[in-house]
């Protein structure tokens, strides 16, 4: 196939595909499309392709060999129906304004959903991070409150027991009519409990006199 601009012997090249295959005549050096010749494509590396002669030149050769003056028959090289050339690019699809609008709407919707999800995640993470110290302080305060409540309950129970014990009356010790005093010095640190002495059946106390107390000392 010639690398120079071919001289066409079949049709004008304006309405043909640039990829459409053709063959050159070795005598007149004109180019012919296989489609215009209505023959199958011939490989470029074959002897037939290298030695090919167009129909017009073949008639001249035959005429010369016969030395005949018969008028030449006109060879028709009218193009047939145009077919799509091999390896030609496909026709581009037509995109309307509605298609563009739909594509833009889908893209905006997708991006907006992703952005909202990211914003929500950022807000939740920030709030959790800021509230984490407060949560720990509340837990510590709760544990401390439970601990002090337990101590308070124990102290209250112990105090109630001591109060009940101090209010007990010692049964079996009669109230003395005459109080006797000693030189023994008492202090709060030596007294454990001071219960009242229950009035006995024999020898009750004198009216107006205070009740006797029995003092229990710490050993």
TrEMBL record:
Zinc listed as a keyword: yes
Domain PHD-type: 10-57
Protein name (Swiss-Prot/TrEMBL): PHD-type domain-containing protein
Species, as recorded: Arctia plantaginis (Wood tiger moth)
Stored InterPro entries: Znf_FYVE_PHD, Znf_PHD-finger, Znf_RING/FYVE/PHD
SUPFAM superfamilies: FYVE/PHD zinc finger
Tagged with keyword Secreted: no
Keywords: Metal-binding, Zinc, Zinc-finger
Positions of region (Disordered): 69-94
GO MF terms held by the record: zinc ion binding
């Amino acid at each position: 196939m010639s690398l120079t601009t071919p001289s066409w012997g079949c049709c004008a090249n304006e309405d043909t595909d640039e990829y459409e295959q053709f063959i050159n005549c070795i005598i007149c050096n004109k180019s012919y499309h296989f489609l215009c010749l209505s023959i199958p494509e011939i490989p470029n590396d074959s002897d037939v392709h290298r030695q090919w002669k167009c129909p017009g030149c073949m008639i001249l050769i035959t005429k010369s060999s016969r030395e005949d003056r018969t008028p030449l028959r006109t060879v028709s090289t009218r193009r047939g129906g145009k077919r799509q050339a091999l390896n030609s690019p496909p026709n581009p699809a037509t995109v309307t304004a509605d298609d563009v609008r739909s594509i833009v709407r889908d893209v905006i919707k997708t991006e907006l959903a992703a952005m909202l999800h990211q914003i929500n995640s950022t807000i939740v993470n920030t709030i959790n991070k800021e509230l984490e110290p407060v949560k720990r302080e509340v837990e510590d305060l709760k544990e401390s409150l439970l601990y002090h409540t337990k101590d308070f309950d124990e102290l209250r129970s112990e105090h109630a027991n001591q109060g009940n014990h101090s209010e007990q009356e010692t049964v079996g010790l009669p109230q003395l009519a005459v109080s006797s005093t000693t030189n023994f010095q008492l202090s709060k640190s030596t007294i454990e409990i001071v219960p009242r002495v229950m009035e006995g059946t024999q020898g009750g106390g004198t009216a107006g006199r205070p009740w006797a107390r029995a003092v229990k000392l710490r050993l």
